């Protein structure tokens, strides 16, 4: 049986796919969704995503998808824009293509009122948190957005010779600086509320920026839920079985 295995870094992202499961844990068991897809909440970063993809492969996934949020590098991309990239890149390796027919099916199924891009996605091992970092990455790579997980999933999919796809929604734009308190709280694979509160106590002037970022996450989360709603075209395309020989 062909089954899509979906890696989401954060439980908040994964709940768009499985809203009935409020107890999703990072690094937990593989969850079987109602449309026979498999879900792994990996935690943030390369190693965590690779481990999550491995769990899905062991559970029988015959295709892999990276699902969640990303940061924009292209100044034209707005918060809430949908990214279904044609390829994933890293700074020190070859581009990794996504599955063409699967990608085209997902693109065709997206809501008509959302901003959409199929530009390349950069996976970075470190956060790109400033406007300058993003501008440099945009100029040097041509990638339209950045995350910290997709290329790890892509590499495992390539090694296993199974189809691979990315579906991400933009949170922070190219013009946004991520607050240092958020970056510090995000180290280690998940957002640590205690570290975030400590960072805000040390630098209270960053509180408005954190609130702004929280609003952006709500916008992106709302789009993720739209895309993942069971029975709707985008969800069906994401979990469908597009496995032709030609990749």
CATH architecture: 3-Layer(aba) Sandwich
Number of helices: 9
Q: In terms of structural class, how would the helical and strand content be classed?
A: alpha/beta
Question: CATH fold name, please?
Answer: Rossmann fold
Average pLDDT confidence is 86
Report helical residue fraction: 25-40%
Rg result: 17 Å
Write structural notes for this entry.
This protein has helices spanning 11-14, 46-58, 100-109, 131-141, 150-160, 180-185, 193-202, 207-228, 233-239, and strands at residues 4-8, 31-32, 38-41, 63-72, 82-83, 87-89, 96-97, 116-117, 121-123, 145-147, 164-170. With 247 residues, it is α/β, with parallel strands linked by helices. The protein has a single domain (4-239), classed as Rossmann fold (3-Layer(aba) Sandwich). Strands 1, 2, 3, 4, 5, 6, 7, 8, 9, 10 and 11 form an eleven-stranded mixed sheet that branches. A hairpin with a 5-residue loop joins β2 (31-32) and β3. It starts with a strand and ends in an 8-residue tail after the last helix. Residues 192-201 have low confidence and may be disordered.
Topology:
Elements: E1 4-8, H1 11-14, E2 31-32, E3 38-41, H2 46-58, E4 63-72, E5 82-83, E6 87-89, E7 96-97, H3 100-109, E8 116-117, E9 121-123, H4 131-141, E10 145-147, H5 150-160, E11 164-170, H6 180-185, H7 193-202, H8 207-228, H9 233-239
Parallel strand pairs: 1-3, 1-4, 4-11, 5-8, 6-9, 9-10
Antiparallel strand pairs: 2-3, 4-10, 5-11, 6-7
Helix pairs in contact: 2-5, 3-9
């Amino acid at each position: 049986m062909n089954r899509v295995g979906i890696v989401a870094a954060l439980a908040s992202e994964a709940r768009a796919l499985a809203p009935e499961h409020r107890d999703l844990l990072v690094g937990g068991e593989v969850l079987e969704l109602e449309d026979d897809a498999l879900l792994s909440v990996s935690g943030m970063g390369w190693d965590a995503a690779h481990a999550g993809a491995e769990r899905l492969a062991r559970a029988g996934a015959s295709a892999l998808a990276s699902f969640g949020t990303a940061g924009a590098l292209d100044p034209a991309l707005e918060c809430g824009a949908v990214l279904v990239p044609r390829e994933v890149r890293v700074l020190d390796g070859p581009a990794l293509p996504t599955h063409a027919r699967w990608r085209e099916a997902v693109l065709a199924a997206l809501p008509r009122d959302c901003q959409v891009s199929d530009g390349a996605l950069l996976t970075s091992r470190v956060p790109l948190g400033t406007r300058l970092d993003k501008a440099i990455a945009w100029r040097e790579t041509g990638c339209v957005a950045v995350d910290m997980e997709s290329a790890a999933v892509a590499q495992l999919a390539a090694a296993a010779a199974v189809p691979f796809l990315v579906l991400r929604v933009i949170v922070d734009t190219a013009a946004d600086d991520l607050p240092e308190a958020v970056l510090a709280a995000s180290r280690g694979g998940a957002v640590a509320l205690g570290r975030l509160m400590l960072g805000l106590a040390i630098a209270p002037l960053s509180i408005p920026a954190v609130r702004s970022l929280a609003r952006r996450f709500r916008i992106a989360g709302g789009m993720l839920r739209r895309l993942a709603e069971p029975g709707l075209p985008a969800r069906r395309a994401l979990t469908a079985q597009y496995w032709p020989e030609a990749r």
